[in-house]
Write a structure and sequence with these properties.
The chain is an alpha/beta fold. It folds into three domains: 216 residues, 2-enoyl-CoA Hydratase, Chain A, domain 1, CATH 3.90.226.10; 128 residues, no CATH class; 56 residues, Nucleic acid-binding proteins (OB fold (Dihydrolipoamide Acetyltransferase, E2P)), CATH 2.40.50.140. 45% of the residues lie in helices and 18% in strands. It contains 14 helices and 17 strands. The strands form four sheets. It has a six-stranded parallel beta sheet, with helices on both faces. A five-stranded mixed beta barrel has the order 13-14-15-17-16. Strand 10 and strand 11 form a beta hairpin. Helix 3 packs parallel to helix 4, helix 10 packs antiparallel against helix 11 and helix 10 runs parallel beside helix 14. The N terminus is likely disordered.
Length: 429
Amino acid sequence: MVLLVGSVPARAQTARGPVALLTVDGAIGPAYADYVARGINRAAKEGSQLVVLQLDTPGGLDTSMRTIIRAILTSPVPVACYVAPGGARAASAGTYILYACHIAAMAPGTNIGAATPIQVGVGGQAPQRDKNATPSTMERKEVNDAAAYIRGLATMRGRNADWAERAVREAVSLPDGDALKAHVVDYVAPDLPRLLAQVDGRVINVLGQERTLRTAGAAVEDAQPDWRTRLLATITNPSIALLLMMVGIYGLIFEFMSPGAVAPGVAGMISLLLALYGLQLLPINYSGLALIFLGIAFMIAEAFLPTFGAVGIGGVIAFVIGALMLIDTDSPGMGIPPFLVVSVGVVAALLLAGTASIALRTRRRRAVSGPETMIGSVAEMLGDAPHEGWANVGGETWRVVSATPLARAQKVRVVARRGAVLEVAPLDN
């Protein structure tokens, strides 16, 4: 009997349990990479039989995309990519993620493709180039690497590898019906329940083990992004990071100009730390970052130096140029729009102009306290003085000197001060 049992071929394990639903709606960045990786790990710990990754993305960062793909390839739970709802797309990085999943599906009215690596110029926009121009060596290396990567994923999952390579080299796209016919995806389903009904009974190889899915009518656990993911997605948005940096800068400037206010300094420090944390998760150009820090230094110095805006304007110019250069990525949707950079620069210039105007008016204003306030004051002589005597100045008795003789009770005007002695002249002069 032992020999007979040992001779029976191993059968596929039947996977039972809930279905975990992860939703990615937007550009692929560090926040979504962390969300998907944690979601897959949690699904494995909770005994889910399938993870459904509902996808709608224009693309994203290469590093974040590869983090998600590594999580899928090493997952002990099968992962199904579902491009949905209608009108959604799996463009650029989304195409690679779909090819990496054990099951690929699309909703009607969706599309996939356009996976060519692009060089992004100022503000995250791809620069215009001649279609007949010869690609540079770096561009060829990037395209060849991406083509080999997606072809490897397609071969692993038994999908159309030739079309996958065309999506990289020629930026082609397919709607849902054509993608199904071309064997780019496995299913087209209008909603999640019907997708789960279609994959019910399918046998999937997961890390060398075959599993049979029993998903028809299975419970779906919707794992929406938590506060951590939403916060990370917000501060890793390059535009938000730039605005946080500006809030931080001016919070500190106002705190330096009005010590003890506390609130501007606290808000500024929190905003600046959040901005720096978000930027360190993004691919940045260090020359642009250096220019931004130089601009920050100049703008803070403007609060202390009597340059009436010269240093501050230099800081604004350095900040704007640095912000335009800051994000160093070929990912769509991850650049900083030029109009936002210019708007921030204009606001900074207006604030600096206001600061300089206040400083200029302050310097021109007559002193209201201190020894300088005595110059021009009217005093009354307390006695006769040929050239030196005593006078009442604002209720105080001062020693005075004059080039002309003065009489008791004569009105005089203070014209200068030399230490504890005032120089006066007759009021009628």
